[in-house]
Design brief:
alpha+beta; four-stranded mixed β-sheet; two-stranded antiparallel ribbon; 5 helices
């Protein structure tokens, strides 16, 4: 994973919504675990009490939000400022792998959810391997 290339804080006047420095991509957001009602209430309570302590992660090359969808939505609703960190990734596939790996390692995922995410990661890695082989490569940048 690359180091963040940009960090910024977003806040607006009371009652106004901050402009989103990112876009929501359905393919990425659909692979994220949905919060239960209790988890959402808990997150909203924490955000009200402490603000947004963890930065939202945005793919630098496309401005797609990779991590923090729930925090972003609730911060906008509650007019709470948040930090954005941008990371560089070489491709959409690598960005999707980053999201899946990051999601799998979150503590609120059940073992079943972790297993399903791991299967999806393996599927994407296998597709990348087949693509590299089709182009005569054994690893990124290396040829047979």
């Amino acid at each position: 994973m690359s180091e963040p290339s940009d960090t910024s804080v977003h806040a607006t006047e009371k009652g106004a919504r901050p402009p989103a420095p990112f876009v929501i991509d359905d393919e990425f957001s659909n692979c994220l675990r949905k919060l239960t009602a209790d988890e959402e209430l808990g997150l909203e309570k924490l955000l009200r009490e402490n603000g947004c302590l963890s930065p939202l992660i945005v793919w630098n090359e496309t401005s797609i939000l990779l991590d923090g969808n729930n925090r972003a939505r609730l911060c906008a609703k509650l007019n709470i400022p948040y930090e954005v960190r941008r990371i560089s990734l070489p491709s959409r596939e690598e960005a999707l792998l980053w999201v899946l790996r990051h999601q799998r390692d979150k503590r609120n995922c059940t073992d079943g959810e972790k297993y399903a995410i791991t299967r999806e990661i393996r599927k994407l890695l296998a597709e990348q391997g087949r693509e590299r082989q089709a182009h005569g490569q054994t690893a990124p940048g290396k040829t047979l």
